[in-house]
Amino acid sequence: MSGSPIPTDTSAHTPSPPRSPARRGRPRALRAILRRPMGAVSLAVVVVLLLGALVGVYLAPYPADAMVGGSLEPPSGRHWMGTDQFGRDVFSRFLGGTRVSIVIAILSVAIAGLLGATLGLYAALWDGRIRGGVIMRAMDVILAFPLLILVPVVTALVSTRFGSGNKILLISFLIGIVFTPLFARVARASVLAELRETYVEAARAYGTPQRAVLWRHVVPNIVAPLLVQAAFTVAIAVEVEAAVSFLGLGVQPPDASWGTILHDARRFIALGAWWLAAFPCLGIAITALSFNVLADITRDVLDPRSTRAS
Amino acid sequence: MLKMIGARLAISVPVLLVVSILSFILLRLPPDDPARLRVGLEASPEAVEAMRRQLGLDRPVVVQYLDWLAGVIRGDLGSSYASGAPVTELIAERLPVTAQIGLTAIVITIIIGIPLGVAAAVWRNSVIDEIVRVISMVGMSVPGFAIGIGFVLLFGWYVTDVMPYSGFVRFSEDPLASVQHSLLPAVSLAAAPIAIVVRMCRTSLIEVLSQDYILAARAGGVGRWTVVWIDALRNALLPVVTVLGVITGSLLGGSVVVETVFGIPGLGSLLIDAFDTRDYPVVIGVLLFAATVFVVINIIVDVLYGLLNPRIRAGYERSRA
Predict the structure, then answer these.
(1) What pLDDT shows up at residue B106?
(2) Is A142 on the interface with B (CB under 8 A)?
């Protein structure tokens, strides 16, 4: 796969442009991540979390909303994470919360990534033109709102306006919009850098249409930085959703995320009900930590210049 | 330099305008009616209508917005639906509380973050570097409110009467108690900033330490730590200052949650309370205030960066010319 031979006489036949240097080595990156102990551990934790989000609710010993024990019982063999003030099983609620928290985090980052990457791509193509400027200024407007103010206010606003509906989708969408500028900036910078590369110029010189240049050469090369950004952003998204739900402005009953469990428990924490606080906080922290570590290591692996030794 | 400040201000005014328009439109989407909330569900349509007129909600949205905007230009953010007090007064009353906690958080960030970053850079790839790396990774991943909840549990249940874990005392009333009350919230708020500053400081110092003039200073007989603290750090702190500025701008958002955890009557709880009672002038006022602070701090950071780094300044002026 050393690329097509460069034709000496371009006028004679249809030129076959050189291949993009990007696509080789993707599996190698995964192997490099797994070779590092922390990389393997964080990837394993991420997989467990994703599995937990998928099938965790089916493993719950009790219905999440039923009174199945006494009020505020500490963890025991019957209730692994104790019970809350209504006598609900915290472990069952925790498993449900895992699904809601992880789904919102992943969904919002997917929305932000797709939206941001597209906008960033166009902003780069329209660089120096008014259209490109408008896109990036719109991103500035979103960034001018402090994150933890924008999400709760807009979530609460829109959900009071448009009734019940599916809050989980709505919150994912809003957090997604808030994170869009992060991806738009990364995408724009990567595309601009890529467009200046010699192989892109070469492809253009061969007469490759713009669309083909983008899809075949530019896009594969901006996937890596976007994936790193996505992993970092999942960590932030979990925290933001938890914060918003903790304020009582995010996920609403009957749905419950880790943040909602903390919101319900907030008055009983100073009364010594440590199990109500500890498990959801651990869930949030472990999720954020594993995605942060994974992103960090992936960045190191993909970019030899950013290694720790400097 | 003046040109640069002017250019940044020129960009930020439209940004703030769009922010205000968006908040205004979002807040006035049907069907939730602040007037009905004031007079109660049982009230007659006439009473609701009268309340709407009283609150100025019967006019077209555009008129309401322009009226409000004209007030903003005069420094008037309108009055609270709930208490009738001017929004500017409400913000001014709560601001010192939030500012004190934010300032304490910044001080804690600097006191802890920079020495840790320096240690990690000086002993890079050693055990110390690894430990600092783990600390900053954890600090980045555990949200501030979770740390706050941990504090409430610790000092509210296990180690009572050592640290106040709830409420606030104003600095003007009792400085010592005030500092005590702001300590736990500030530490919760500072966790993520410390992690960011540590990393920034480490990367930047490693780069500076590898430069020739540092080697020359060492060769000339300047002591190791003198070089690190006096010669290298001055240049290494440049990006750290930038990052500290960005952090300062975002503290307001974090303090909304932390204030709720500790039951502190600051700007954050003003926003949340106003939101619960649909007190829209207060909500918009606080939002606009937060966005303005954020934008202004970012401009200050840019200017500071330009002042500290002549290369940027020169580059900027060339590109403008």
Answers:
(1) 94
(2) no
Tell whether B11 lies on the interface with A, counting CB pairs under 8 A: yes
Distances, alpha carbon B219 to alpha carbons A92, B223, B224, B246, in Å: 65, 9, 10, 37
> What are the start-end ranges of the H helices in chain A?
26-35, 37-55, 90-125, 130-144, 147-161, 167-195, 198-205, 210-212, 219-246, 258-265, 274-302
CB < 8 Å to B283, chain A: 153
User: Which sign, positive or negative, has the C-alpha torsion A103, A106, A110, A116?
Assistant: positive
CB contact under 8 A, A285 and B141: yes
Chain B CB contacts of A310 below 8 Å: 124, 203, 206-207, 210
The pTM score is 0.83
Residues A154/B26, Cβ–Cβ less than 8 Å: yes
Nearest CA in chain A to B206: A310
pLDDT higher at B205 or A149: B205
pLDDT per residue as tens digits for the range B82-110: 888 899 999 999 999 999 999 999 999 99
The answer, yes or no, to whether the previous bond of A254 is cis (omega within 30 of 0) is yes
Q: In which region does residue B32 sit, left (phi positive, over 0), alpha (psi from -120 to 50) or beta (all else)?
A: beta
> B12 pLDDT exceeds 60?
yes
ipTM over 0.90: no
| Residue from the list A262, A285, A309 with its beta carbon closest to the beta carbon of B142 | A285
